[in-house]
Amino acid sequence: MNKTIQNFFSEKRYRQWLSLSILLIYLIVIAGAVVRMTGSGMGCPDWPKCFGYLIPPTEQSQIEFSPETPYKEGMVIIVDEELRVAKDDFFSTKTFSEKNWEPYTKHDYALFNVYHTWTEYVNRLVGALGGLVVLIMFIFSLRYIKKRPWITILSFVAVISMVVQAVIGKIVVDTHLSPALITFHMIVALLIVGLLIYLLHEVKPIDYRFKSNKKMAQFAALLIILTLVQVAMGTQVRQFIDHQVDLLGYPLSSTWLENGPLVFIIHRSYSILLVIAHIWFFYQMIQKFQHPKTPYYLLASLFVITILSGVFMNYLDFPFGSQAVHLVIASLILGVQFYLWMRLRVALKS
């Protein structure tokens, strides 16, 4: 029996669930980007339910007062362009009675758009699925509890991080999409990805094709730092654009960056430094150390896409989807960089 359990909780299964966890986190990043791209962040004005429903409404009539209808505690309706929350379970009379309802006080957003609602709902479903997969990954990590306990401990940290990420998501909704909190939400997602990639690296066999020396391993770490600086500046630019959207609206996208902040100019020019540094790194790794070309070609392709999306935003007035692509690709770049750095570090010890 013990052997059967041991075979079930195999290292291979742990790696499979770990790889799936990484994939799901990136899907969460993509789903979040789609929510931002479509302006669906407030599609569900409450959390964790959506207008008080486990499965959100599909018609405006479902969130309007209905006479002689059973209501459950926490259900949400829109009355006079304000949200009202059912205080308790009750059966409504023919007329609306304030005594059964209380105002929703966390924000004053009270609009219903079925497309925004379901976009945000799918985003939450992907997040819940990601949390479930990470939890299963942790369960399979228990096989390491005696011989490599840090694997199990860090797997549990990943579970806690997913819970924290969910709480941050709730606060983002409650604060009516605070730009600073949205940025923090993204940073936490990147940290979770980094943790999972580290765990995957720790349980994968050493790939002796990734030869290195101390200088190149240090340079790989420097590239990660340089990219993080670029991402940090990008978040500042994005917060400025969010403010411009609120101030000017989407029809005036061509004017969003007319008086852009200095950080935008630096962010745009800084990309040249990143490209030059990566070209040199790619050349050294492929030509001098004879590394497999695939990960470097992948990283180069991601850089091309993120630069093009930045160019489109700057010169083509933010075409639909360009911001989302820019954000998602940047997170993928960091993931590939971190994995390569981990491989190079191991190569020094082998």
From TrEMBL:
GO biological process, one term: heme A biosynthetic process
Localisation per UniProt entry: Membrane
GO MF term set: metal ion binding; oxidoreductase activity
Pfam families registered for this protein in UniProt: COX15-CtaA
Residue intervals passing through the bilayer: 20-39, 121-142, 149-168, 180-200, 220-241, 261-283, 295-316, 322-342
Membrane-topology annotation of the record: Multi-pass membrane protein
Pathway stated in the Swiss-Prot or TrEMBL entry: Porphyrin-containing compound metabolism
Chief localization: membrane
Keyword Disulfide bond among record annotations: yes
GO annotation, cellular component aspect: membrane
Key words of the record: Cell membrane, Disulfide bond, Heme biosynthesis, Iron, Membrane, Metal-binding, Oxidoreductase, Transmembrane, Transmembrane helix
Record protein name field: Cytochrome c oxidase assembly protein subunit 15
